[in-house]
Give the backbone structure.
Amino acid sequence: MSGTSAAAPSGDHLEIKDSRTGKSYNVPITDDTIRTADLKQIKVNAEDFGMMGYDPAFMNTASCRSAITFIDGDKGILRYRGYPIDQLAAKADFLEIAWLLRHGELPTQAEYDQWVKDVTYHTYVHENIKHFMEGFRYDAHPMSMLTAGVAALSSFYPTAKNIHDEKERDIAFVRLIAKMPTIAAFAYRHVKGMPYVYPDNSLPYAENFLSMIARMSEPKYEAHPVYAKAINILFILHADHEQNCSTNAVRAVGSSHVDPYSAVAAGVAALYGPLHGGANEAVLRMLEHIGHVKNIPAFIAEVKSGKGEKLMGFGHRVYKSYDPRAKIVKGLCDDVLKISGMSHDMEIALELERIALSDDYFVSRKLYPNVDFYTGLIYRAMHFPTDYFTVLFAIARTAGWLSQWEEMLLDKEQKIARPRQIYTGYAERPYSTKLDYSHKITK
Ligand code: SDX
């Protein structure tokens, strides 16, 4: 028995035959995808819910249409709004890129100057932020402090809930891009037991951040130009990366129409994980654990056995070749290490990479260094504590999270994110209990 369930679409389509019913279906193909909603018509019985797609961790599922970042994992291509990442990293300024990611075009000089001025004059945070920073122990992980600090900003700007008001979105972009470095620096100074350093509005973005981190009694902090340049480039490289785990979190949380501060706080929390942004911290701990190049073969054997930890900083869901960002960061490493001295960890990292890239276990699985493999070495060379590396990632990714959040909000196809499930639990069963609810708490 065959009968198309719907008029065959004139364009490209999949012809699906359901062996359970013998029925055939034509499902339209657009952008080399099918809408899984079009599968719903496929049923055995009329009262069935209809067919769904099943794709744990979204390994092969597009959740949105986006024009912000393009990645070709096989060719190692990464572009922000069409511009190749290596050209942007070599020449651009991070705030220029933050503008590009949101607006889709590079800013004019007037737009850039106004944007820099707006960000500069919003770097201060409410004094109360300092008080709840005090609530954290001296050894609190700075990512916990950053997650809390960003979420708290929501309470200081209640009108941010008016997410359909473009002016409210404009000021939220300015405030978050401006205040992330300040909250991050306050977290750093709290953990160090040092007084907070307020923003210096005469300094550019990267230099101001380094000033809030490192200034002591000097009236004005002079960041080392190589370090300031490294921070600017690393912020550009980490600014966006299409639908990664933390961006997916920001889009999903933002789809409930919560304010952008709360949505970005969800992104910070997702980035904290060692499989995602926490990997740069995990790389350094892995290098410390290896300790010496002579221990690398035994470590690699442990990774390959599957019993040890993963080779942190290697592998990627999308890149099945060298992460283009890793190449740029590796070059940056050389510049920074010339200032701070070749680190023992760098020797281990270079040897680890050399061995891994010649070992079939990694090559066959297309496991190459990702953006996190070398970033940690630069941050370590700049004397940032290991548990602070992901905070630096979060400052930069705020530009991408906000741009993706707004694109989701303005996308007419998007609604509140609410996936379905395949139920694997009990069928209906009657409830009965023999519990005694007198709450006799035995001593
Ligand atoms: C970031 O998505 C993004 O864009 C993220 C990011 C961004 O800018 O937002 O690029 C930033 O998060 C970079 C990734 C940082 N994470 C790490 O470096 C942690 C180590 N890497 C892995 O955990 C892993 O590679 C992932 C999480 C990055 C990707 O995992 P996938 O795509 O789910 O791949 P998988 O776990 O299914 O691995 C496939 C195979 C498995 O072996 P088999 O079961 O086939 O035998 O490769 C193995 C894995 O065990 N494998 C590794 C490995 N990564 C994967 N084996 C050893 N070391 C590794 N690092």
